[in-house]
Design goal:
The protein has 419 residues and is an alpha/beta fold. Among the domains are: 119 residues, Rossmann fold (3-Layer(aba) Sandwich), CATH 3.40.50; 79 residues, Alpha-Beta Plaits, CATH 3.30.70. Helices cover 32% and strands 25% of the residues. A 6-stranded parallel beta sheet has the order 3-2-1-4-5-6, sandwiched between helices. A hairpin with a 5-residue loop joins β8 and β9. The structure holds L-homoserine (HSE). L-homoserine binds next to α7.
Length: 419
């Protein structure tokens, strides 16, 4: 019989995820894992667990030698970092769902894992119930991973679905996402794309060995999407989704961003509604694979935490294979994007920055165009997020540096500008 480690857990946080985990663990006695103490911030709240389990003193968990696993599912990134690093230094394994903390401190957390040789697992921090980190880490060889396109924020996907299919207004849809426990306590983190880019930061590490601070990545959320944009999408038989994308270019470098994108109805991601997440992986020989599941909420997130706890029974650790055992990939800004932009006045749009514009329309309330921009224009400038301007990527948005001249010529010929 194999021998599994007895896991004694100190749990930080008893909110949507913490309470979910408590219930899920009660239903999985075979795991041989028990919660010894739960550290909370507010002792006044009524809790659905015995009083004796709770404390407000973090050292009761962090200094208890019988506790060998710290599960940290709290909201505040700074406190989470303090807890996780202290626990690792004290010789404990750590399971975390704090995506913001992980994204902002990745280099320190990598160093600390090497130094302490403790496990630090965080499957629940991205795509909740979908085992995306372990898949990227274990299954895909760097050279074979051509690209990833994913919906990784449940709240914004929920809001877009409710607005454009069920005709709720933005505020109603957001309120519902909050009531159901999907939204961050500061919902602008979801709406403006911060949560998605935080998750994308470490997914890029497990996929490609890339380490980059979220501030240096290209992203926005759904805050500028206008009703007319959804109408245009519907006319084209498409949907608008907030899509995280990474693609290996022919020079071996990686193009990456989290931006709203038009998604054709027959795309796998069009199937992803409400709080579900979806990940489409394109790899050599296998073509496309689609991972789908709940990306937010109490039990779906707890299920990923549970799976990490279970993996600790055999001392599982992320090896960061793409970073340490392969040649890590580099990000590039040498590519172009085909974009749709809707706006109120041409004066807000730097027309001369476009390689070419292939469509433009003026409707009563707003105007829109479809054109091609060098991606540096979006990294360096903010016009595309200001003055109620809305930028949405076309489906298949990436154009490589090497094909831009040919495509430009063709597009100008089509427009009748050249003979
Ligand atoms: N606020 C997050 C989301 C929760 O909506 O996806 C899950 O990480």
């Amino acid at each position: 019989m194999s021998h599994h480690k007895q896991l004694t857990i100190g749990l930080f946080g008893f909110g949507v995820v913490g309470e979910g985990l408590y219930k899920v663990l009660q239903q999985t006695p075979s795991l041989n894992a028990s919660i010894k103490k739960i550290c909370i911030k507010n002792p006044g709240k009524k809790r659905n667990a015995p009083d004796a389990l709770f404390t407000t003193d973090k050292d009761e968990l962090l200094n208890d030698e019988s506790i060998n696993v710290i599960v940290e599912v709290i909201n505040e990134a700074d406190a989470a970092f303090e807890i996780a690093t202290t626990a690792l230094r004290n010789g404990k394994s750590v399971v975390s769902a704090s995506k913001k903390m992980i994204a902002e401190h990745l280099p320190e957390l990598l160093a600390l894992q090497q130094e302490t040789e403790q496990s630090f697992l965080y499957e629940a921090a991205a795509c909740a119930s979908i085992p995306v980190i372990r898949n990227l880490e274990e299954y895909y060889d760097n050279d074979l991973l051509h690209g990833i396109k994913a919906i990784i924020n449940g709240s914004t996907n929920f809001i877009l679905t409710k607005m454009f299919e069920d005709k709720l207004d933005f505020q109603q849809a957001l309120l519902l996402a909050q009531q159901l426990g999907f939204a961050e306590s500061d919902p602008t983190l979801d709406v403006e794309g911060y949560d998605a880019i935080n998750k994308w930061t470490f997914l890029l590490t497990h996929a490609y060995g890339i380490i980059e601070h979220p501030d240096n990545l290209l992203f926005t959320g759904i805050q500028n999407i206008h009703a007319m944009d959804a109408a245009v999408a519907a006319e084209k038989g498409q949907q608008i989704k907030l899509v995280a994308q990474a693609q290996k270019l022919s020079n071996g470098k990686v193009a990456s961003f989290v931006l709203p994108q038009f998604v054709p109805q027959d795309d796998h991601l069009a199937f992803v509604k409400n709080e579900y997440n979806g990940v489409v992986i394109e790899s050599g020989f296998a073509d496309k694979q689609f991972f789908y599941g709940k990306g937010a909420g109490s039990f779906p997130t707890a299920s990923a935490v549970l799976s990490d706890i279970s993996a600790l029974r055999y001392d599982y650790k992320y090896e960061y294979k793409k970073l340490y055992h392969h040649q890590p990939n580099e990000l590039t800004k040498d590519f172009y994007l085909r974009v749709y932009v809707s706006f109120t006045d041409w004066k807000y749009i730097p027309r001369d920055k476009f390689e070419w514009i292939e469509e433009w329309h003026a409707r009563e309330e707003r105007k829109y165009l479809v054109g091609v921009l060098p991606v540096a224009e979006l990294f360096e400038k903010n016009w595309w997020k200001e003055n109620s301007t809305s930028l949405i990527l076309a489906a298949q948005p990436i154009i490589e540096d090497t094909s831009i001249q040919k495509l430009k010529k063709k597009s100008l010929e089509l427009a009748g500008v050249l003979d």
